Task: structure prediction
Amino acid sequence: MPLPILTERLALRPYDPDDVAQIHTVLYGDPAAMRLLGGPLDVHGARAAVERYIAQLRREGYSFAPVIERETGLIAGEAGLYPFAGGGPDVELGYALGPAFWGRGYATEAGRALLAEAFGPLGVDRVVAVTREENTGSRHVLAKLGFIPAGRRHAWGFEQLYFVRERRRDDAPAATI
Ligand SMILES: CC(C)(COP(=O)(O)OP(=O)(O)OC[C@H]1O[C@@H](n2cnc3c(N)ncnc32)[C@H](O)[C@@H]1OP(=O)(O)O)[C@@H](O)C(=O)NCCC(=O)NCCS
Result:
């Protein structure tokens, strides 16, 4: 997953340890943003997450990344690809934004770009996702990205709805090296 990924309004770049304070303020420390993700984390929890994502990118070549609003340069949240429920083998799409950035189509825009990375450079044939049933916004995002409901899974500490997005003919062709 070559970074940065640029979309019309967003940029995804590798996490840097210096991002911890900003991503904590925008996302991890925000009770509304974290309501369905296990509740807010303190700054140590945010640092641990950022360190995990940096290590994951180094090890596997894909991970979560901060989502930058290009117009302002602000970190709006994060999005990325990760081994499903932390263990794989499927690749999971995830996204989470601070409340100030909701409702503008950013999660869908980032998700679309990440699917292109998964089906292109990463060369996978399917991407999975989970969301809590009550997360209406996330279910809308997954529907817009073409994910199909495929039952329920216990993942990341919760019983969640499970979705699959198979590669389609109109997706980016896998990179051939
Ligand atoms: C879920 C989340 C990522 C959506 O991000 P977003 O950038 O606002 O999403 P988009 O604007 O691309 O699309 C959201 C869609 O859901 C709808 N929606 C959002 N919240 C909703 C709600 N509470 N009830 C009903 N619909 C809702 C929007 O109207 C929009 O639908 P539309 O495209 O049909 O108009 C964002 O709310 C978020 O980060 N929440 C906190 C973290 C989180 O829950 N992450 C997902 C974990 S699975």
Remarks:
- The first helix runs from residue 20 to 28.
- The pocket of coenzyme A is lined by residues 33, 36-37, 77, 95-97, 102-108, 131, 135-138, 140-141, 144 (CB under 6 Å).
- The mean pLDDT is 96.
